[in-house]
UniProtKB/TrEMBL annotation, chain A:
<dbReference type="GO" id="GO:0042802">
    <property type="term" value="F:identical protein binding"/>
</dbReference>
<dbReference type="GO" id="GO:0000156">
    <property type="term" value="F:phosphorelay response regulator activity"/>
</dbReference>
<dbReference type="InterPro" id="IPR011006">
    <property type="entry name" value="CheY-like_superfamily"/>
</dbReference>
<keyword id="KW-0804">Transcription</keyword>
<comment type="function">
    <text>Member of the two-component regulatory system KdpD/KdpE involved in the regulation of the kdp operon. Upon phosphorylation by KdpD, functions as a transcription regulator by direct binding to promoter regions of target genes to positively regulate their expression.</text>
</comment>
<dbReference type="InterPro" id="IPR001867">
    <property type="entry name" value="OmpR/PhoB-type_DNA-bd"/>
</dbReference>
<feature type="domain" description="OmpR/PhoB-type">
    <location>
        <begin position="129"/>
        <end position="229"/>
    </location>
</feature>
<dbReference type="Pfam" id="PF00072">
    <property type="entry name" value="Response_reg"/>
</dbReference>
<feature type="domain" description="Response regulatory">
    <location>
        <begin position="7"/>
        <end position="120"/>
    </location>
</feature>
Automatic annotation (TrEMBL), chain B:
<keyword id="KW-0418">Kinase</keyword>
<keyword id="KW-1133">Transmembrane helix</keyword>
<dbReference type="InterPro" id="IPR038318">
    <property type="entry name" value="KdpD_sf"/>
</dbReference>
<dbReference type="InterPro" id="IPR003018">
    <property type="entry name" value="GAF"/>
</dbReference>
<keyword id="KW-0597">Phosphoprotein</keyword>
<dbReference type="Pfam" id="PF13493">
    <property type="entry name" value="DUF4118"/>
</dbReference>
<protein>
    <recommendedName>
        <fullName>histidine kinase</fullName>
        <ecNumber>2.7.13.3</ecNumber>
    </recommendedName>
</protein>
<dbReference type="GO" id="GO:0000155">
    <property type="term" value="F:phosphorelay sensor kinase activity"/>
</dbReference>
<dbReference type="GO" id="GO:0005886">
    <property type="term" value="C:plasma membrane"/>
</dbReference>
Amino acid sequence: MNQTGAKILIIDDEPAIQKLLRLTLKAHGYQIIEASSGEKGMMNAGMNRLDLIILDLGLPDMSGLEVLKNLREWTQVPIIVLTVQEDERDKVTALDLGADDYMVKPFGMNELLARIRVALRHASQTVDEPVIELKGIRIDFVQRKVELHGKTIKLTPIEYDLLKILMQNAGKVVTHKQLLTQIWGNVDYNNSTHYLRVYIGHLRKKIETDSTQPLYIVTEPGIGYRFVAEQD
Amino acid sequence: MKSFSPKWQILDSTHKGNRKSYIAFIKKIPIIRYLISNKNRLTAYTVTIGMNGVLTLLLFIIGFTYDRVNIAMLYLLPVLIASVTYGLGPGILSACLGLLLFDFFFIPPIFSYSVSDLRFLVSFAVFLTVAILTASLASQMRRRAEEAKRREAIANTLYSLSRQLAANSQIEAIINLILQFVENAFDTQAMIALSQEKEFKYYFSTTHDQQVMAKTDQYILKWVFRHGQTAGLGSKTYQSAALLYIPLKADENNYGVLCIGEPGNYTISTHRDHIEILHAIAGLAAISLARIHYEEQAQLAHLAAESERLRTALINSISHELKTPLTTIIGASGGLIDSFDKLSIEDSLELISTIREGAMRMNRLVSNLIGMMRIESGMMQLKRRETDILDILGVALADLKEILQTHPVHISTDGDIPEMYLDELLLEQVLVNIISNAAKYSEQDSPIDISIQKDVQHLHIEVRDYGIGIPDDEKHLIFNKFYRASNTTHISGTGLGLAICHSVIEAHGGKIRAENAFPRGTRIIVQLPIQSVHSQKIRKDDKN
């Protein structure tokens, strides 16, 4: 990985979690800046050239969602959100507000590291790559062509758009709302997730060997879908 | 209704002089107006006059002219009939009319009011006295009978009201019944203010909105509530108030205040017995409210006892389940710190993975506890959406990847699985709990079979293992909180997983049951109702 040395800001008020993240991330070669409140976090974000922010949604001084909204007003630096809540609404809100990914406490360090790698890679990526190839799927944006292990597969326009968005965000979760607005524009997304599921089902039938245990497109119940980029 | 036209009105209408205003003037004369406004009265007086006319005509034609004593007696007849049928007014009218007719037609000189023999004046006086006395007695009798009839009617309606009240256990329904009853019976508006923690909550009947509220005097309302005494219009205290306020009082407890009345309608205040009836209704309302109040208290007491029992079970179960992994975590981490220089890398790794396992176990327990708490506290709200069961099954299997490495899973489905309308996350939790149980209570490398079938109304999800099974008499008990089958004591667990499944599936209107499989193992069968879902119409707009 070429991102070693990336500068990460951790906004979390729990000393134990600060310590855990600091030790582990330092061991993986990242530089760490710590902030124990939303206010300090936003100040630190303004003063440093950051590569990534890890933001706890439960902060003592203000809501983590507010911090997120505030940050997104002026910076596109990748943000990974930490939450204890099982409630998916907070996660969806965070993602729709521009968070790159979320982790539910307690989480495994491996998983967090993988998410950090994905987020950093996306940040460094040039936006208009003409071709993406991941795990045997090759998608050519110029010719609108998709190949699975060298064999061309036929996709309907909507299936193609879905795959394109998911692969461009490979490794990251894409919410129902994000998918729906990017494909259909402004729709009432509360009533339209049904459409999404049907098309995802069709797409899976074409690229997955076993749709009940998908290798490429996994469901995040209540939130959205994720294209699995790397094997854990 | 009584009406007294002020003088200037009469002057005003005569002043105009034309015919229309003359008719209008006549209509404004109090008695005429009184008669017009009250059709029953009008017919009463007409019939009375008619009776006297017919009698006179008959007597005159038959020619009883010279038998005057009998004629006088006969004139008492209409008086009696009128006062019994119509009351005192028509009776007295009949008496006076009878006297005039008697004098005019039968006392010589006939067709004149002049009296030849002065002795007749004495007879007139006696006739009038007897007639009026008869009229008043008869009308009194009539009033009593009417009164008795009305009281009976009121008693009957109160009785039916009390029966309706007893059949209801909802505060809103009871209050609505009372308000409707009062408004219909007294033809006025009513409102009930119930005290709820220092504040009043106001209830109105459906027919009137908040007009009464605007007329309510908060000060009197509070006074009535505090003192438990009736006040307002028609009572002894605060007589000048616009409404009548009656406390809803039962067993020394005051539940609220019934407010009745509307401006311009003073019927209630002028009838003492109306207030008595209202008191009876208020009493009925208070008793019903007291009943609900005590029922709620009994329910609370029951809940408290239940939660006490649960708490004990919780503490017993949890203390064991939490202490075991904590012991391994504290022990292993302590060992690592104390003797890090003496341990080989392999041993250290072993200790570290013990810590990890202990923590994972605690995490599962805490998740289950939170899930159970959410259900128990009524915080569980289904966020239903159309769900692809196979997709959710895939997510559940991915969650259990580690555990399932030693248990091959076979999935069989009934081709066309309909979309279900479910809470995805809760259903995932159910599947995870059932499948992890299947793995937990069976030997390594024994397979797990999952089948999804549908019939007309239900989707059946069956998870079958080849493990230790469940004793027959405990099959229905394992879905109780903290219950663990007697053959599982050597395997750690809290007895929460299936209880959560049970609650979730029931919340979805489904059923869950356990059966023993042949030759060994357990089958957990979930049955979910199939609800209407979108058809496949969307395929049309995406053809290439």
